[in-house]
Write the structure tokens for this entry.
Amino acid sequence: MNSCSRSSVLTWWIMAGALAGCEPREPSGQPDAGQPEPACSTPTGAPIEHQGTISAAETWSASSPHVVVGDLLVRATVTVEPCTVVRMGPARSIGLDSGGSLVTAGTQARPVRFEPQEASQPWGQFRIYTGGSARLTWTVLSGGGNPSSAEATVRVSAGADLPGPRPLFVDHVTIEGSRGPGVLLNGTSGFAEGSTALVIRGSGSEARPEPLAINPNALGTLPSGTYTGNRSDTVFVSPDVASSSVFFVGADATVRDLGVPYVMDGLQVGNSSFGATVTVEAGVELRFRPEKTLRVYDVRSALIAVGTASRPVVFTSARATPAAGDWAGIRFDGLSPDSRLESVWVRHAGGACQCSGYGCNYLPGSFDVSSAILVFQQPGAAFIANSRIEDSAGHGILRGWEGSDAVGFLATNSFARVAGCTQTTPRDAEGRCPSSPPCPRSP
């Protein structure tokens, strides 16, 4: 073979290799990297109606609108494709029973939408029962929440297990125009790990005006998001939303700063069988309903609230016009060495604590020792620091233990408008009080 022939063969092999790399490929169904996703188009298929029970897996396509004409019970996996529009009949609901799962696969440019079939007639709710789940991504839930029962658009019903189930995952979900709360978490349920970017707006009823109504064990699961523009821009936390037997926080939880206050229908950390640590982030405001208490049950449980000078943790009254003694205060029945209150404000507390015989300073005319903060076990150090107590109808800090008087709370804390002592005098190791116990006063 001459040199010209060898050159031609080599050129042929190079061209063949290049052409092989340029063979057409099957479409992937995904836009090329860097290219915007196509917007949703109007469905062209006939409406598909749903009601009754779904017992086998289904996929709802965006090619047709879907109409829920009767209540729907899901006992298999229903996957909803991007751009799909689901129209919910008046007061109609989707129940996710044991083994049932709703998975919406929306994207930023191609969201999934659930909306009323008739604009003026709200639909019911998604209700997640024990063993059911929902995984919602880039999804809009509009016009839900049956006003006749002030139901939420999404309601999780669960039992009394600890740790509680986490069957609701949300990622860039918007709930708007709910006739009740956007989300209600019963029992011991909460949001699934990784939930993020939840928006609830234009929601709430007279009976339940908040965007979120949750049980205490959901506190540590709430996702980041936006919770403003509702009838009441607060998160409601209540044992009444919980299982009757698990009204306390039974596992460690962090109360996040979500940009709105929490309204607390009382809160108990731990019980005789479960210890827990509740950590409150800087900037959080907890508003307690009348006569309610934040109670740390025993030494196995802890409360850690550490704010900053510019973003203190605030414990205060939930009344529209707060006054001294609206709520009972923060109560440490036992004291873990982990408990810390630093850069916190405690306001409008010192209401009736239904406790007596502790410490040496009784309020006039009674054996009452009501205080903004009540400590019934001797601490190893001053775990309350750089904080402020205002407008207490009782004492500021009750030192309600028997033992040493060495640990005090006056050095770094400030007090204003405290009716009793800024801090009380503890009894000695034999349970005795001095004849005239010191009672420092506030301005």
Notes: Confidence is low (pLDDT under 50) at residues 1-30. The chain has two domains: 46-242, 248-443. Residues 396 and 422 are 4 Å apart (CA to CA).
